[in-house]
Every structure is written in structure tokens, then in C-alpha cells.
């Protein structure tokens, strides 16, 4: 997140009117976008749980309530009152299945004005190799420690089969533990380039951890 907070604002320096945010989650980036630009923000978040946290965050910032509209829809169903100047996706690419991703680019192209900016987080190198369970992050809140762990079970093409464990402990005692499995996606650079070019985008700036494209 510190890298995003450093590198994203310069890419958005010319954006004044509107931003479409895909996968707003709990609103950390949404609130930051409102601080970095004067633009109206359309924050797309299909998860009811995530939206609840996002709306709570906005309620604690009265100055944002007139500038942020939360759209409770899937990204493929986005319909804006007028084309946006920019579309932003932060830490979303890894969750997009290839077929879904190919459908998304034309939707974003239709949602942007001519020369509109598309920015998303990106890591080179293809999908990570299988590895045993490792701690991703851990944080203590009161007497409880919240820990997230990840195991990469296997890799096929651009997809990695992963297992997550979310654990809450108090000292040596496990209070609760939830396990989920799923897939993460990291397409090759040339694959993304073909998809985006087909959808009408041309590559613009890039900075550490971010790629920027513009609608031709």
C-alpha cells in the first residue's frame, strides 16, 4: 500500500471530473482517491460485506458523501451517467478469471471518455511457484492476534491454486480458524497487451507496481 500511495497520485494528476473504481473493497483506496483528486468517484463493489465497511468509512467522512457513489453491482454491469476520465483497479487483477477479464476490458472502454486513463496494479513474472503455508500478515487487536496464511498448491498456465487460512489466537490458544481455497491469476505481459489493444487501449506510463493505458 505505501508504494501505491506514492506512485498512483502522479498518474492521476490530470484527473478532475470523475473516476471509476473497480473493486473498491472496504474503501481504503476510495478515500485516498478523494484526497488525491477533486473528482467524483464511482466505487464498484459487489460484496455486501465489503460495501458495509465502505459505507461506514464514508459515513465517518461527511465531506466525501457528496463525491462518492457506491455501485452495488458486478463490474461487467457498470453503467455510468457519463464517461469517466479514469478507471482504477487496485489489487483486483489477481481475482479476475481469464474469460471474465477479456469481457471486462470492453466494458471499461465503454465507460471511459476518449483518451480516458486505465490504471491497475501489476506484477511481472507470471504466477508464483507452489510453496508451503506461509504467513502473509499478522496484527494484534486487543488480546487477539489476527493472522493470514497462504499456501500455493499448484500452478497451471496463469492460474495458481491457493489455500488461505485466517486464524485468530489469544496467546497460544486458537480462538477460531477459517480455511478457504481458490485461484489467483497473473497473466503474462503479452497476453494483457493483446487483450487491451483489442479493446482499444494503448499503453501509457508505467511505474513500479502499476500499469497505465489510455483509450485510443
Strands, helices and their partners?
Blueprint: H1 2-11, E1 18-22, H2 28-36, E2 40-44, H3 48-59, E3 68-71, E4 84-89, H4 98-111, E5 112-121, E6 131-141, E7 144-156, E8 159-170, E9 173-185, H5 189-198, E10 201-207, E11 210-215
Parallel strand pairs: 1-2, 1-4, 2-3, 4-5
Antiparallel strand pairs: 5-11, 6-7, 7-8, 8-9, 10-11
Radius of gyration: 18 Å
Helix- and strand-based class? Answer: alpha/beta
- Number of E-type strands: 11
Number of helices: 5
- Average pLDDT rating: 94
Q: Helix and strand succession?
A: HEHEHEEHEEEEEHEE
Features:
alpha/beta; globular; 11 strands; 216 residues; 7-stranded mixed β-sheet; 43% strand; 4-stranded antiparallel β-sheet
Describe what you observe in this structure:
With 216 residues, this protein is of the alpha/beta class. The chain has helices at residues 2-11, 28-36, 48-59, 98-111, 189-198, and strands spanning 18-22, 40-44, 68-71, 84-89, 112-121, 131-141, 144-156, 159-170, 173-185, 201-207, 210-215. The protein has a seven-stranded mixed beta sheet, sandwiched between helices. Strands 6-7-8-9 form a four-stranded antiparallel beta sheet, with no helix packed on it. Strand 6 and strand 7 form a beta hairpin. The chain starts with a helix and ends with a strand.
Amino acid at each position: 500500500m505505501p508504494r501505491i500511495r506514492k506512485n498512483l497520485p502522479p498518474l492521476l494528476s490530470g484527473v478532475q471530473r470523475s473516476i471509476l473504481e473497480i473493486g473498491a473493497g472496504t474503501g481504503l483506496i476510495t478515500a485516498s482517491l478523494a484526497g488525491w483528486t477533486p473528482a467524483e468517484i464511482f466505487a464498484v463493489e459487489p460484496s455486501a460485506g465489503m460495501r458495509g465497511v465502505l459505507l461506514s468509512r464514508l459515513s465517518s467522512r461527511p465531506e466525501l458523501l457528496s463525491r462518492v457513489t457506491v455501485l452495488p453491482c458486478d463490474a461487467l454491469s457498470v453503467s455510468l451517467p457519463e464517461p469517466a476520465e479514469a478507471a482504477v483497479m487496485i489489487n483486483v487483477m489477481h481475482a479476475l478469471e481469464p474469460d471474465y477479464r477479456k469481457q471486462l476490458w470492453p466494458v471499461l472502454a465503454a465507460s471511459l471518455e476518449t483518451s480516458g486513463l486505465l490504471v491497475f496494479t501489476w506484477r511481472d513474472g507470471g504466477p508464483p511457484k507452489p510453496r508451503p503455508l506461509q504467513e502473509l500478515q499478522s496484527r494484534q487487536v486487543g488480546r487477539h492476534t489476527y493472522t493470514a496464511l497462504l499456501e500455493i498448491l499448484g500452478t497451471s498456465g496463469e492460474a495458481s491454486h491457493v489455500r488461505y487460512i485466517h486464524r485468530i489466537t489469544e496467546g497460544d490458544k486458537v480462538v477460531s480458524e477459517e480455511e478457504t481455497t481458490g485461484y489467483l491469476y497473473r497473466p503474462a505481459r503479452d497476453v494483457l497487451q493483446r487483450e487491451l489493444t483489442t479493446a482499444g487501449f494503448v499503453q501509457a506510463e508505467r511505474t513500479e507496481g502499476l500499469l497505465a493505458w489510455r483509450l485510443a
